[in-house]
Design brief:
Layout (H helix, E strand, L loop, with lengths): L1 E8 L7 E7 L6 E11 L1 H7 L9 E2 L4 E8 L11 E4 L9 H4 L15 E6 L2 E4 L10 E5 L3 E3 L6 H7 L2 H12 L7 E5 L3 H13 L3 E6 L2 H9 L4 E4 L5 H9 L3 E6 L4 H10 E9 L14 H6 L3 E4 L7 H13 L9 E5 L4 H9 L5 E5 L3
Parallel strand pairs: 11-12, 11-14, 12-13, 14-15, 15-16, 17-18
Antiparallel strand pairs: 1-2, 1-4, 2-7, 3-5, 3-9, 3-18, 5-6, 6-10, 7-8
Helix pairs in contact: 4-5, 7-8
Length: about 375
């Protein structure tokens, strides 16, 4: 067992507290990882604010990379000293979703979650996303580990573990965008910027970025947006429809709000799709205006979970695209923080000051 500093959430809208936790030794099929970098992601904020629920106290964090410290019995894909990015989806590899190339939708993922392998004050707690990456050490499934080349920085690899995979994958995997099609992206944070990059990679003819903040729209242009819409200056649906003569082929929602999901629905043209990438609040219901006539026009809405990732295939090619300078990841990172400043990092995220922050935990 190893002792590690971690950011602990005790209650909704409470500051995270830096405390020691105990992380168990790896058992069969498991890997102990010393965390190098962990992304400050908006998805964790949903749990911190109570929009999604999780047993507390909890150590959150799901976007990380690190170095393998120890491996359990039967682990052959990684060894101590390997640099790895960790996928937050736990997949069994045996169910029909896994064996047909959709491991992000594994039917057994809940049964793979661990209780009692990390402890706080001697009491067992759940591992968030099978990781609890806001800690100096993580105990994870070996199937979640993907090798990181020596020339890919660990903070870059960490973002590939969530925001890059989620954003680019929504375009290339979930909807399989075709060359020449049009896109709107509602919300230009870390995930939204990667949706924009994915659309550019796939050959979209027009990429319209929608946000309330000028700095977010400026970043969107840097990452490949052809047009921007300031949602603080008039109805964004009307603006997109007027710019495109009726709407776009795909409108991606990348925030996690019912209002922006409705906006994405309104921006999609006849025969188009609204793609919900953000985590919509569990306790609210989504109402689709003019759904009856829209469905007659073959307009649709679809969810995208983790960019429909097949981590052992998708993450290596994303790292290769980074190495070839075909996608930008260094530029997404606005600020780096030590673990003990995680609350300040989340204040910056909530204030819209950053594209993405990263916790640096290399000692």
């Amino acid at each position: 067992m190893v002792t590690a500093k971690a950011a602990v959430l005790y209650g909704i809208n409470q500051p995270l507290q830096i405390q020691d936790i105990e992380v168990d030794e790896p058992q069969a099929g498991e890997v102990l990882i010393k965390t190098s970098a962990s992304g400050v992601c908006h998805s964790d904020l949903h749990f911190m604010e109570g929009k999604w629920t999780y047993p507390m106290p909890a150590v959150l964090g799901h976007e990380s990379a690190g170095v393998v410290e120890k491996v359990g019995e039967g682990v052959t894909n990684v060894k101590p000293g390997d640099r790895v990015v960790v996928a937050f989806v736990q997949s069994c590899g045996n169910c029909d979703r896994c064996t047909t190339g959709r491991p992000n939708l594994c039917q057994n993922t809940q049964s793979l979650q661990r209780m009692g392998r990390i402890k706080l004050g001697g009491n067992p707690i759940m591992q968030f996303a099978g990781m609890s990456a806001f800690a100096e050490y993580q105990l994870v499934s070996s199937k979640a580990c993907v090798h990181v080349p020596d020339d890919v920085p660990m903070e870059v690899a960490a973002l590939i573990g969530c925001s890059v995979m989620t954003g680019v994958g929504a375009v290339t995997n979930t909807v399989k965008l075709q060359v020449g099609q049009t896109v709107a992206v509602v919300g230009c944070g870390g995930v939204g910027l990667n949706i924009i990059q994915g659309a550019k990679l796939a050959g979209a003819s027009r990429i319209i970025a929608v946000d309330l903040l000028e700095n977010k729209l400026a970043a969107a242009r840097e990452f490949g947006a052809t047009d921007v819409v300031d949602a603080s200056k008039g109805d964004p649906i009307k603006q997109v429809q007027e710019m495109t003569g009726g709407g776009v082929d795909y409108a991606f929602e990348a925030i996690g709000l019912m209002k922006t999901a409705q906006d994405a629905w309104g921006m999609a043209r006849r025969g188009g799709q609204a793609v919900i990438v953000g985590m919509l609040p569990l306790a609210e219901q989504l109402t689709l205006p003019n759904a009856g006539t829209s469905f007659l026009g073959e307009k649709g809405i679809v969810g995208s979970y983790y960019g429909s990732t097949r981590q052992t295939y998708d993450m290596p090619w994303l790292m290769e695209l980074y190495r070839q300078k075909r996608i930008k990841i260094d530029e997404i990172i606005t600020k780096r923080w030590p673990l003990d400043q995680i609350n300040e990092a989340y204040d910056s995220l909530k204030g819209g000051e950053v594209n993405r922050s990263v916790l640096i935990m290399d000692s």
